[in-house]
Design brief:
Layout (H helix, E strand, L loop, with lengths): L3 E5 L11 H9 L2 E4 L2 H11 L5 E3 L5 H13 L4 E4 L11 H10 L3 E5 L4 H9 L6 E6 L4 H10 L6 E6 L4 H12 L3 E6 L7 E6 H7 L9 E5 L12 H13 L4 H12 L3 H8 L2
Parallel strand pairs: 1-4, 1-5, 2-3, 2-4, 6-7
Antiparallel strand pairs: 7-10, 8-9, 8-10
Helix pairs in contact: 3-4, 6-7, 7-8, 9-10, 9-11, 10-11
Amino acid sequence: MSGKLIVVGTPIGNLSDFSPRAAQTLSQVDFIAAEDTRVTQKLLNHLNIKKPMISYFEHNKYERGRVICDRILSGETCALVSDAGMPAISDPGELLVAQCAGLDIQTLVVPGPSAAVSALAVSGLPTGRFTFEGFLSVNKKSRREHLEEVKDEPRTMIFYEAPHKLAATLRDMLEAWGDRRIALVREITKIHEEVIRTTLSGAAERFADGSARGEFVLVIEGAPRRREPKYSPESAVALAKELMAGGCSASEAAKRAARETGFKKGDLYQKICE
């Protein structure tokens, strides 16, 4: 009989955020797939749990994924954990869950902390609709292409960023999008947790010297929605012609149509006199 994969969320800084159900799950599974076994061992020691682990991270995920799936298919149950937060979200575990899905392996979840959603909740920016963009590429060209793709995204955007790349990222965002509101949420649930609400220009200036410390979640205001113009050039000319048909002179018709549509009087006058 096949076992199952259980995706278990782990604390993002404060071990007290680990749920009783998550602890119980780790104590009951056959083995744990951990992004960094040293980090997970600290959590297990804190919970007084002894359980065999297998490392599963970015550079061995294809090979280890097959091994883990084979063990599950043979009847073992595996808990998948990351170093912090929800596995499979901007995380190598994404592939393992996909592999299990392809093999019809039952996959369950024990929810835990999420840095993205936690940062959004305290950002002060709109939360009704948002998009998670994860980490930007370290490649400058790829990073700028990503920023250009989401330039007109109207929803609040969430990015993860490391401190040593923050200054360059803020500069690139400001250059690609212009100024807009941003909340920089730092060290979530840790001693030095901080929410910095400012603008992209203010943030770029503040961290230009490379002084950023700790892990950051960037929550950024979406682009303003573009309103569809009420009048097209053709409908504006049509309105001016209607006014002329109603008895207005060409000049008066162009003036009134310009006031109503926002188009230039001279352009409308030229069109209706052609």
